[in-house]
């Protein structure tokens, strides 16, 4: 169904993207309309502890009496780090609240009911796919009680990640690598196996093409029993480094408990394999280079799958051409 709020909701979703994709809170956008449907204020959420999108938009008008608020997420109904948006909207005197996605949070939900009880006209579920898509990672992480996991690798067209002698720099194009650095900066954490730290001495920073650090750096997490050597580049990472051992699901649950909502998994192959085997990967980013290597160094090993009916079925959500490579983004359906 097409409604008169669709375009404004799309604009609200664009505003939401101005906020950080990382951290504990969802990206939310809010627009205030006057009676003629003209935009009078735009707001968005800038991350946990800062004003919510609705409060940000309300702060930009002298009076919100009679206005319509268009929000990507149902206004919250709880006092967390900030006060309830439902009450802020009621106190400001808005006439109508239009939103896309219901807030699934046990504490936060109920804003729509509170607004309705206060006599405000509430229009829910406008372009629900837009609101859902915006916070898909946040919804998944909260539902599963573990961070959203994006696994990335670069391989040849025949699925090899290194030559037989182990050489692997560089299979993918510089454009693909620069895309990967942007992706790193969109995750709370970046994980590698302890063997990879020994083999590659990675710095795990998110950098521009000329080596400058992005403003946001994900926290490096090393997983596995081997010690991080004293000479490791990770010791000079601006965020420090976390070293975790034990079952992967327990590590992820611990990370969730300290506020981690997304993890970028960079390898190596055995850690990647374990994550996939245990069904702990939500999204795959695979950079495929126009090259053939043959040999035994394949992107994944034994996934515990014996027959085709047990295959992990994914859906491709995006494909891009980057500097001669094809970059495929695929998701697990869960
Ligand atoms: C909204 N507008 O812009 C956001 C909402 O601890 P707090 O106060 O920051 O609250 C975080 C929760 O509030 C979060 O889990 C989600 O349910 C909701 N986020 N709600 O009305 C916003 N960011
Ligand atoms: Zn709120």
From TrEMBL:
Keywords: Multifunctional enzyme, NADP, Oxidoreductase. Residues 3-123 form the CMP/dCMP-type deaminase domain. PROSITE patterns: CYT_DCMP_DEAMINASES_2. GO terms for biological process: riboflavin biosynthetic process. Its EC number is 1.1.1.193. InterPro entries: CMP_dCMP_dom, Cytidine_deaminase-like, DHFR-like_dom_sf, Eubact_RibD, RibDG_C, Riboflavin_Biosynth_HTPR. Pathway: Cofactor biosynthesis; riboflavin biosynthesis; 5-amino-6-(D-ribitylamino)uracil from GTP: step 3/4. GO terms for molecular function: 5-amino-6-(5-phosphoribosylamino)uracil reductase activity; diaminohydroxyphosphoribosylaminopyrimidine deaminase activity. Pfam families: dCMP_cyt_deam_1, RibD_C. It is an enzyme of class 1 (oxidoreductase). This is 5-amino-6-(5-phosphoribosylamino)uracil reductase. It comes from freshwater metagenome.
């Amino acid at each position: 169904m097409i409604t008169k709020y669709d375009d404004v909701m799309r604009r609200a979703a664009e505003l939401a993207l101005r906020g950080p994709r990382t951290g504990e809170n969802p990206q939310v956008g809010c627009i205030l309309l006057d009676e003629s449907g003209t935009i009078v204020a735009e707001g968005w959420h800038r991350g946990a502890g800062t004003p919510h999108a609705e409060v940000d938009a309300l702060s930009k008008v002298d009076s919100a009496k009679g206005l319509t608020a268009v929000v990507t997420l149902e206004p919250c109904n709880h006092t967390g780090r900030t006060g309830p948006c439902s009450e802020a909207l009621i106190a400001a005197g808005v006439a109508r609240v239009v939103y896309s996605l219901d807030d699934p949070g046990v504490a936060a939900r109920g804003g729509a009911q509170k607004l309705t009880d206060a006599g405000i006209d509430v229009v829910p579920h406008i372009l629900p796919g837009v609101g859902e898509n915006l916070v898909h990672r946040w919804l998944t992480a909260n539902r599963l009680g573990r961070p959203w996991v994006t696994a990335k690798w670069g391989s040849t067209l025949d699925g090899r990640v290194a030559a037989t002698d182990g050489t692997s720099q560089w299979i993918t194009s510089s454009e693909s690598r620069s895309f990967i650095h942007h992706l790193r900066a969109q995750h709370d954490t970046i994980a590698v196996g302890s063997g990879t730290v020994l083999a590659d001495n990675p710095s795990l920073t998110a950098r521009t093409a000329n080596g400058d650090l992005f403003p946001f750096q994900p926290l490096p997490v090393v997983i596995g029993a081997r010690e991080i050597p004293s000479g490791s580049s990770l010791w000079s990472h601006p965020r420090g480094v976390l070293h975790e051992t034990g079952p992967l699901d327990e590590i992820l649950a611990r990370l969730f408990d300290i506020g981690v909502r997304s993890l970028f998994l960079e390898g190596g192959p055995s850690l990647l394999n374990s994550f996939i085997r245990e069904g702990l990967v939500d999204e795959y980013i695979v950079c495929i280079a126009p090259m053939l290597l043959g040999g035994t160094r394949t992107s994944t090993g034994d996934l515990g799958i014996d027959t085709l009916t047990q295959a992990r079925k994914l859906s491709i959500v995006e494909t891009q051409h980057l500097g001669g490579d094809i970059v495929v983004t695929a998701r697990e359906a869960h």
